[in-house]
Amino acid sequence: MRDKSLPAPERQKATSGTTQDRDAHDEEPGGPEPGSEEAARLICLRLLASGPRTRSQLATALRKRRVPDEVADSVLGRFAEVGLIDDAAFARAWVESRHHGRGLARKVLAAELRQRGVSDGEVRSAVGLLRPQDELATAQRLVARRVAASRGKPMPVRARQLMGMLARKGYPPGLAAQVVREALEQDQADGGSGTDLAWISEDGSGDEWS
Fold first, then answer.
1. The whole model's pTM is what?
2. Burial class (CB within 10 angstroms; exposed 0-12, middle 13-18, buried 19+) of 1
């Protein structure tokens, strides 16, 4: 029975508890004991059902649910043994998807994988699947899609915006300068112009940038 002598907000606190308390006690009737191996397995399976996860991501989820570290290590070890967790495969699929889908270069892909707890060795192996010519071809496609939209702007602005786009996706300055310069030279040639664009360099130096 509620204590009606308490103000409404205080009655709500007394009856509902904190969000953290509700999360800790909101277990299905007859479900596994919180913190047990069975509970840990169910948490992992539910997460994996919505998409691949790294071992580190699952470990973080179990820690948030107050699963003891020794229990988490045991469950995650068995998941790895049967192939439900495979950080190397996760990293390869991530690189394939994010490079071809978003045009991201090795630098950014490596950072994203490390943020998800993939080991340095597996990160290097995964991003190593991208060859320099793959990055070059993708950078060329990215710039080609945007060159037309930049027409009408001053050339230094066009060059800076295109190089900035490539930089945000992780492409090295030298490659970005090469790709942007070649794309703008071709765009000029198509339009019957031929301004010298040798000033487009990887460090953006030169009077033409100002």
1. 0.76
2. exposed
